[in-house]
Amino acid sequence: MIKVLISYLFCSRGGVETALLNRLRAIDEKAYRIDLHFFQDYGGLEMYKGWKGHIYTKCTEEYLKKLIRRNQYDLVITIDSLAVLKLLAQIGYDGRIGLEVHTTYKESLRYLKDRRMSMVDFVIVPSDYQKRLVRRKVPEKKIYVIGNAVNHETCYQPQCVLPSEKKILLWVGRIDEHKNWRLFLRIADYLHRRTDSFLFWVAGGLKSEETDIHEFEKCVCQKDLERHVLWIPQVDYKKMGILYSYAANSGGCYICTSQNESFGMTVVEAMKCRCPVIVNAVGALPEMVGTDRGLCLEDMGNVEQMERIREFLMEEDKGGMVSQAEAYAAEQFSCELVAEKFCSILNKYKERK
Questions:
Q1: What is the DSSP letter of 150?
Q2: What share of the chain is helix, strand, coil (3-state, %, to 5)?
Q3: Which of 85, 88, 162, 247 is the most core-located residue (most Cβ within 10 A)?
Q4: pLDDT in tens, 222-231
């Protein structure tokens, strides 16, 4: 049995934690013992109920040292964190070390130039875009691309139909600058001023900063969209398929206005649920959507592009595009395929140094 510890600084309800859980559920527990360690919990641990692996949450470095020494892990994999690498150097850990890089923030990627990166045996990223981003920082490292896994429960549900003729434009994410909620509201305002054919749903943001939530609510009021924007602060991950399906069955779409994405978890989830997608042409999003799986726009906020969004929403026949997107998401990012790729890496590096 190969023993692995995956350590992450925090556990929220974000795409990284969701993808990690989906991957772990498909791994053979008899061949691999995989433990998780989170320094802080921001409401994400609830998602892991029912998973049979060990989860440790004490946030002190001393605790993590004792954990590694006691369990004698063959591999330790840290996600977007230099802190764990520093600790492994302190205790003289002699097993293999992996690093998963999901962040796209420049300031958060600076640690890749740290001298302790010499300890890292391999790097895992979720997209070719992210591989190029990391390669510029660590050209000598072996980098593997493993896409985020999408749960089988996240699938199209034809019964999810609202008693309304209006189309739903769905947006999912934290209420912050990176996810770019301001652009979504600008697009909602543009569409609403031209026709009363749309509903605007915002899902997520319960754990966002209070100041950001206040600004979001203030902006909704300033644009006179209170009766047209529905904010759903939190959705159980198991029910996300229902949300995407409501948008799909209304004749609407899912829109991603992010300023950057290393993968685009919600985009792939929407595609798997037969919900047409509109994305900002940044980061890995063009890679996920391509030219025939949705609408990918440069400079989404200008008037010409917002008019393209309106025209796309009003199109009735998106069947071919939706079917291609659904097949792509289901085939490329199934839990089984992602878990198989991950385990093949573990097998390559199971021997201690």
A1: B
A2: 40, 20, 40
A3: 247
A4: 999 999 999 9
